[in-house]
Amino acid sequence: MPVSTERRFGSPEIAREMAKMFGDEAKTVTVEMKYRREVGRFVRKIEKAHKQAEKSKLVFD
Amino acid sequence: MPMDAHRRADPVSLRIVPATQPFSCFDFVDAEFGGLDSVRRCFSLARSHGLQAVTIEDVPATGLIADENAEIPPYAPDHQMKALRRLAFWSVPVEKADDLGAVGTDGLVGYAILKRDCAPCRNYDSWHVFEAVFRKYPHEHNCVPALREYAIRVGGRDLAVPGVLYCQQNTLNKACAHVALRSLLSRRLPAGDIAYSAINASAVKASGLGFQPGRGLGVPQMRRVLTDQGVPFRDMDYEESEKTDPDIREHLPFQKYLYAGIESGAGALLGFRLSGPGVTGTPRHIIPFFGHTFNKDTWVPDADLAYFDVGGGVGYIPSESWTSSFLGHDDNFGPNFCVPRLYVRPDQAEYAVELLHDHFQYSGCYAEAVGLSFLYSLYPHLVGSANGWMQRLAFYIRPKLQRVVLRAVAVETTDYLDQLRNNPDWDGGLEDTAFIERLASMLPDRLWVVEVSLPHLFPANERKVGEIVLNPGVTPDPKKPVDFGYFLLARLPGKYLTLQSVSGSKPHFLEIPSRLASHTPVLRH
């Protein structure tokens, strides 16, 4: 069977199902996202490097 | 064309050579295969597995080998295949053909198919290892994720060897880049292997006129091969990237690419500049990597040299810190070498490729960074927990320390859920199976699981305190630094968190209880 990463549920849908399943045992916590800028800069570097490799002229023999 | 036809061809002849003392592998390789280093390496591997006998079959060219012979003439019109031999290496006594019917498959250490090509117009007449597969060293800290078995017929008997395909160039229709690609692609393609003619057909599309495969592949050609085979990847040409980021070798070292590809089971490639006495010009070589050592007593993480800074003083200890060597093949010298992680100098590394699993949209170090962002954001909610392991986690992720251990693993969801289902925590707590069944119906088929562990817990016990689970199928959006769409759930000691909603940049997580309140084993491939 081919394996895919197609989303069946996103996290909000999972949260809804879990809220139903756990009832009063579930609680909501609100979070201030930290380091988004630093992490964002880092992951963009990975993607930028991948894009720049399109221009590579290296040959391996 | 059946991709294993050449491994299963019926032999024209069979010889059995006892290889116990005083048999000399050196003399034999000198006498029969021109003292070729790569063949010597095959015999050395067999010897270290307790070699007792070698079977040598002359076989006809079929399948991928017939395909190669048909491909070579445009590049070497007078090409002739002079010999083709299939060698099987046995760690049990084999004295006569009848013995082959009785030996167990465990007695087969590995095999090598050796081909002698001759092309006078190219001044070429040499043996090379068309392919070989050897079992890995049995040591538990010699880790090779996603081993597959290669079917092989010996003396009319069908057997199989687990390992990673090694192949060697012949400079006629294939160079180091071809064989490195075939090693890794044969592990994952549904057909089980790839013909060099298919690699060259893709390379031609990315080439100008006059493509000569024996002279190697360029990066655009290698990328085209991967794309045509539907293999996602992330790569880095350090010279290109240095034009806009002079510190790129420090920010994204080649080891990050190699380890991420290896640990996910997809593999990685490293292209580097050769150096040393006798090297002229700027020759380049590329080799495949598929495993790593795990050295639990290594000094590096404790000495604070392993801390990986994603930028702005935000960092973590990557699990690769306990790796001393990567395991790979070097087509010039043979299969299954340990290449020290820090042996290739950063300035020698020119190109690194992390292969990804099918449909994955971002890399392992990307997943670790995203997981880090979610984990560190949760810090204020972990402080003050009554759970001792949560307290320890909070201690290690506090902003002034940030010494948490992260390990990104690409897994099928069933494997992740099986681990939740079958592995009690250290105190014997088992997860609620009804919860796992409900989760199973909601998650995608594959996941990036960023395992969260602590110094000393990870190396000594190979255990973790939780994981951040991400959807690998979400395409990175440069406008969203940390896309909430990646996040599926976090499991931390005694609790799960799933994302309910987002107000502006503030996510609201639903917290639910977990019966796993302490540490659990890390995922194993």
How would you sum up this structure in a few lines?
The complex is a heterodimer of chains A (61) and B (525). Chain A has helices spanning 11-22, 36-52, and strands spanning 27-30, 59-60. With 61 residues, chain A is mainly alpha-helical.
List the helices and strands and how they pair.
The complex is a heterodimer of chains A (61) and B (525).
Chain A: H1 11-22, E1 27-30, H2 36-52, E2 59-60
Chain B: E1 13-18, H1 25-33, H2 37-48, E2 53-58, H3 63-71, E3 80-90, E4 108-119, E5 124-134, E6 142-143, E7 148-154, E8 157-163, H4 176-185, H5 196-205, E9 217-218, H6 219-228, E10 233-237, H7 238-242, H8 248-251, H9 254-264, E11 268-273, E12 284-293, E13 308-311, E14 314-318, E15 325-330, E16 334-340, E17 349-355, H10 364-377, H11 379-382, H12 388-397, E18 405-412, H13 413-422, H14 433-440, E19 446-453, H15 457-461, E20 463-464, E21 466-470, E22 487-492, E23 495-503, E24 506-513, E25 520-521
Parallel strand pairs in B: 14-18
Antiparallel strand pairs in B: 1-2, 2-3, 3-4, 4-5, 6-12, 7-8, 10-17, 11-12, 11-17, 12-15, 13-14, 15-16, 18-19, 19-21, 20-25, 21-22, 22-23, 23-24
Helix pairs in contact in B: 1-2, 5-6, 13-14
Describe the protein.
The complex is a heterodimer of chains A (61) and B (525). Chain A is mostly helical and 61 residues long. Chain A has helices at residues 11-22, 36-52, and strands at residues 27-30, 59-60. The longest helix of chain A has 17 residues, at 36-52. The two termini of chain A are 37 Å apart. Chain B folds into 4 domains: 1-170, no CATH class; 174-229; 232-307 and 324-358, no CATH class; 367-521, no CATH class. Chain B has helices spanning 25-33, 37-48, 63-71, 176-185, 196-205, 219-228, 238-242, 248-251, 254-264, 364-377, 379-382, 388-397, 413-422, 433-440, 457-461, and strands at residues 13-18, 53-58, 80-90, 108-119, 124-134, 142-143, 148-154, 157-163, 217-218, 233-237, 268-273, 284-293, 308-311, 314-318, 325-330, 334-340, 349-355, 405-412, 446-453, 463-464, 466-470, 487-492, 495-503, 506-513, 520-521. Chain B has an 8-stranded mixed beta sheet. The mean pLDDT of chain B is 94. At the A-B interface, helix 1, strand 1, helix 2 and strand 2 of A face helix 4, strand 9, helix 6, strand 10 and helix 7 of B. Strand 1 of chain A pairs antiparallel with strand 24 of chain B, so a sheet runs across the interface.
